[in-house]
Amino acid sequence: MKHRDVELLAIGAGPANLALAVALEELAPARMAADSLVIEQADTVAWQPGMLLPEAQSQVSFLKDLVTLRNPRSRFSFVNYLHSVGRLSQFINMGSLWPYRVEISDYFKWVADSLSRVRLEYSRRCTAVEPLRDAGGTLTGWLTHLADGSTIGSRYLVVGIGRGAYVPEEFAGLPERRVIHSTRYVQRIAELPKTVPYRVVVIGSGQSAAEMFDAVQSDLPGCRPTMVMRSIGLKTYENSKFTNELYYPSAVDDFFGARPEARRQILEEMHITNYSGLNPETLEKLYSTLYLDRLTGKGRLRVVTMNDVTSAREDGDEVVLELTDRRTGEIEELRCDLVLLGTGFEHSMPSLVRGLADALGLERISVNRTYRLDVPGPATAGCYLQGVNEATHGIADSLLSMQAVRAWEITNDILAGRAGGGSDRLAGEPVESTPVPAAAVPVFAG
Prior knowledge:
The chain has about 450 residues and is α/β, with parallel strands linked by helices. The protein has two domains: about 5-165 and about 345-440, FAD/NAD(P)-binding domain (3-Layer(bba) Sandwich), CATH 3.50.50.60; about 170-235 and about 275-340, FAD/NAD(P)-binding domain (3-Layer(bba) Sandwich). The chain contains 14 helices and 15 strands. It has helices at about 15-25, 80-85, 90-95, 100-115, 185-190, 205-220, 240-245, 250-255, 260-270, 280-295, 350-360, 390-395, 405-420, 425; strands spanning about 5-10, 35-40, 120, 125-135, 140-145, 150-160, 180, 200-205, 225-230, 300-305, 305-315, 320-325, 330-335, 340, 380-385. The strands form three sheets. Strands 1, 2, 3, 4, 5, 6 and 15 form a seven-stranded mixed sheet that branches. Helix 1 links the parallel strand 1 and strand 2. The N and C termini lie far apart (about 45 Å).
């Protein structure tokens, strides 16, 4: 068992912590970056690898990359990535703000490979984090345990691991070979024989469900897909320029300072801008596909609306889903071979964060405006949570829109705490800091 110490440890090499690594390199190359480490449990950087479908595009402008909203002149920008791989002219000629998802994933890997000061290590799975206190009870750091038995000590900890895949309890009892969540679609579907005429049921009405419903028709050419949803039908995202203003980094201040009832209203009304909806191109393609299926009399495709899956069981060589019609209460049995879940992610905090909260004796998990975990008592150490703070920081918290500016805010808060050098600042209110100049933070909707 080996132990080592760093000043800052970031768990997870997703876009949130990659943006943080870039911010550390650009804002604190000598003071912090050289003693900062990012660990990733996978053996490479890949963005949503289970849904890296060939034609899938990002729903966010390329200008909302890991750095541009903070520093448009950065060498880590998406534009510089395109230039470095010789594809800038082609991308411009395509005339789209939205890169392909595989391209965004490759950009993230390019950023990871381009880091020169912050270290990044792969195949490092974190199993637990415990707080460290001195004899007087002051929180002085964190001890992170890895699956290989080694430990890492740090003064600052940044958790950016995302939420776990949500598998509704009705499907929890089915064998793994029968159920594929969208987060594992590409890998799992590649393992299946292409000649078997699978009866496939896709659960959900959002973008991931629609993409799987479309993709499985070619990935398993002989299959017969059925899409089941609780909603009245597939619909597009609400994407007006007015609601897109709530994805501005500046909107976080308004949301954080709002009363609880106002926050609930904003989240409820903004739900359709990111969840349970499709981009217009996907919806148009699916409708055309369904229309042609009916026109040619193939009857291969089916969409079932306003139905709940009230139970699921394996019966011999097939899965039996019990569907309850929300309009009539009638129950139908739907038999299939494979279930694809487009059910999104858990609403609860990741288990790693919950375990840390238990170790700290926290009754509730909360963060301040600069994403620092609220801890009781004096502290000279800090823990920051990325991408799990929609309830306090708004709907954009888990999206690419916030990565660049949030990384700046966390970095600045850490640097201010280090400059203060005492427990009062880290345990108290966020340190006020000089805002990013307006000219350096252009704002783009979408």
